[in-house]
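Here is an idea for our session: we take a single protein and study its fold together. To get us started, please write out a protein record for me. Once you have written the record down, we can walk along the chain together.
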Amino acid sequence: MQELLKLIKNSDELPYDLALEAINDIQNSGFSNYRKAAEKILSGAGELLPDNYLRLFIMADITDAEARAAMNRQKRIIEDARFLLPAMLRLTNVKDTKNLEYILGLIRSCCHDFPIITQAVHKKRGHREAVQNLTSMISNLEELVNYLDQNESFVDFDFESQMEFDAGKKVSYSEFVTEVQHMRLAAQYVIFADEIGERE
């Protein structure tokens, strides 16, 4: 994470290996045993298979050809992530590895939930509605950030006081705005990753 944080601040492009590591961390770092097993079955599968394919592949619920197709899609995602992740993460003003892990976790959560929706019984309609909803969400979050910025001086003190009263901890107005921006960027990444994954 420290190396990734350093490159994000000083480079517009990630090395392939580091982008691969970041994507795997985004998807789920808890699948290391599955990755080792998959690699023994098919070269490259341990590194390149998305986490939702690992168990299926190990249990022989998908063919080698299907696994290779998923690996090829993942390669395209990683190539684009080499340029996309530095730009996205700089926009969130990442300051330390803890903050970086949190943002990558947000992206991972969105990436995990989105395919589940798109694989529902009414896949095409569900997929289309999911993309439309995410696009609408991004637009609404952008509008919200603008309103929050414009009205900060009017509501920041009361917001922080109310948060401390309700939650029992201090949450600054600027921290809240940053969280909204993180969610918008996570949603944008999910749509981007889905578009790349749909190319055959």
About this structure: Residues 2-197 form one domain. The mean pLDDT is 80. The CA atoms of residues 138 and 184 lie 5 Å apart.
